[in-house]
Design goal:
Layout (H helix, E strand, L loop, with lengths): L2 H14 L6 H46 L9 H15 L5 H13 E5 L5 E8 L5 E5 L3 H4 L1 H17 L1
Antiparallel strand pairs: 1-2, 2-3
């Protein structure tokens, strides 16, 4: 017997040394692994959705601030949205239509993301008051409470503070 044949026999005997699993044990193993994968996929999708929500809100904020150029009110911004739509679509693909950018801008204007005393974040719908100033009506959303969303908002605040 050659050295390679001995190695091959050792591998084969080691493989056969694994005790056979009963079909119910094996079925339970497959089900447990499948459940683990499904939970991980669901969690990843939820995290991605929360991150995209924070990103769209931030895109809306940047559009509004660019349009206003330091003024309290913006001028007509359709030309900006058309150009931005073309450039972002060319650079990043679908998802940046003029209408989509309008929705991101409206999302920023109509919602605010605020820290709570517990250190979590919540989204609040902005509601105009009789005085014409914006008040906030508490409305928590799962995406506002997610850890990914919190990190995105904290990173934005840190970026703003470092730019001041």
């Amino acid at each position: 017997m050659t050295k390679n044949q001995a190695k091959g026999n050792a591998k084969t005997s080691a493989f056969h040394a694994i005790p056979p699993l009963s079909s119910s044990d094996y079925g339970r193993l497959v089900a447990d692994i499948s459940n683990l994968l499904e939970r991980a996929r669901h969690s990843a999708a939820r995290s991605a959705n929360a991150f995209l929500t924070a990103t769209y809100w931030e895109i809306g904020r940047r559009i509004v601030e660019y349009e206003q150029g330091g003024k309290s009110r913006a001028g007509y911004g359709e030309e900006l949205l058309e150009r931005l739509s073309k450039d972002l679509t060319a650079n990043h693909g679908r998802g940046f239509s003029r209408q989509g950018l309008q929705k991101m801008r409206a999302f920023y204007l109509e919602w605010e993301i605020c820290p709570t005393p517990s250190g979590k974040f919540e989204a609040r719908a902005k509601c105009p008051t009789l005085s014409g100033e914006s008040g906030a009506r508490k409305r928590q959303t799962p995406s506002a409470r997610s850890e990914i969303n919190q990190r995105a908002i904290q990173a934005r605040w840190k970026e703003e503070k470092s730019n001041e």
